[in-house]
Amino acid sequence: MKKYKVGLVGVGAVGTEMIKVLKERDFPLKGQVQVFASRERDEEILGETYHVLPANENSFNGLDIVLFAGKTDVAIQLRDAVVKAGAKMIDNSRAFRQDPEVPLVVPQVNAEDLDWNKGVIANPNCTTAIMLEAVAPLHKAKKVKRIIASTYQAASGAGAPGLAELEQQMKEYVEGRELTVKAFQHQLTYNLIPHIDKFDETNWYTLEELKMLNESRKMLHAPDLMLSCTSVRVPIARAHSESLNIEFENDITPEEAREILAAADGVTLVDDPLNGGYPMPLDATAKYDVLVGRIRQDISRNDRKGLDLFVSGDQLLRGAALNAVEIAEHLIKRNLV
Q1: Do 275 and 188 share a structural domain?
Q2: Which residues are catalytic?
Q3: Is residue 1 part of a domain?
Q4: What is the domain range of residue 134?
Q5: Domain check: are 132 and 220 in the same one?
Q6: Number of domains in the chain
Q7: What is the arithmetic mean of pLDDT over 10-22?
Q8: In a domain, 132, yes or no
Q9: pLDDT at residue 36 above 90?
Q10: Same domain flag for 192 and 260
Q11: Which of 28, 29, 241, 299 has the fewest C-beta atoms under 10 angstroms from its C-beta?
Q12: Residue 12 has pLDDT above 90, yes or no
């Protein structure tokens, strides 16, 4: 089997998870992953020492695939260098998601879009990736017309500082001390914050909420899809959940939806509510699949074109690291690298 030289830019929570997933899935690595960051140093990652090199225009020669888990401006700055080196860039930032020249991919949803890549592939926002694992199979069968989404997003969505602050606040709360508030706009422990990313002052949606609309339209090739979202930060460690109200072009019953989702790759059906069986972030944590349940007919309608359902997915895995590694795997399968 051919082996591939892989680079990684960024060694935070997502970057660490990418290395973990590469190992778990026995990715055909040629040597150790070459890690890049802002400065040279030795760093221990998952019990192994990596010699971290500075990320610059000359860093990527000889690499086949470069995973980007850093900031948007870094991805923009280094894009041309990766492409010039002949490597494939898989970027987890928002830098290229709406670039018409860059495919935005979740392999279970639209792997075929990889075929027209020009050296750069974008990872979608984690909430979009988790939602579309459940929505895409239903869309292919019955065509989705409109989605009303409410997201319940974990502290890890704000990176390692967000997760650390939640843990610190919980300890401070128990000890009766003043709570540290830096990573979020407000105290997160014992609270919900309906504010993720900046507000668009033309319509008062946040950029996080607008990503759900724009990215879903691009990935489903559905420019007329209607979607309205409210994104909420919740005091959960690392799995996002979403409540979805979906309107379809065609009739669909809960039974049909369960049958479709039970057969879908990347989805685990958890829909036995009378016995406590429904998606929860605790159960989704560290799982590859998105959990889907609470499937029911929308009783606000007088037809069978509406469903309600609930999903939970690990945002560091399904929404970021796992998706990036699966993109790399599919590039290999499609002889694109």
Answers
A1: yes
A2: 126, 240
A3: no
A4: 128-315
A5: yes
A6: 2
A7: 93
A8: yes
A9: yes
A10: yes
A11: 299
A12: no
Nearest to 160 by CA among 287, 25, 45, 39: 45
* Residue 325 φ then ψ, to 5°: -70, -40
pLDDT digits 0-9 by tens, 226-263: 999 999 999 999 999 999 999 999 999 999 999 999 99
Cβ density class 138-157: b for 16+ within 10 Å, e for less: bbebbebbbbbbbbbbbbbb
Residues 231, 252: one domain? yes
- pTM comes to 0.95
In percent, the amount of the chain with pLDDT more than 90 equals 96
Residue 255 lies in a domain: yes
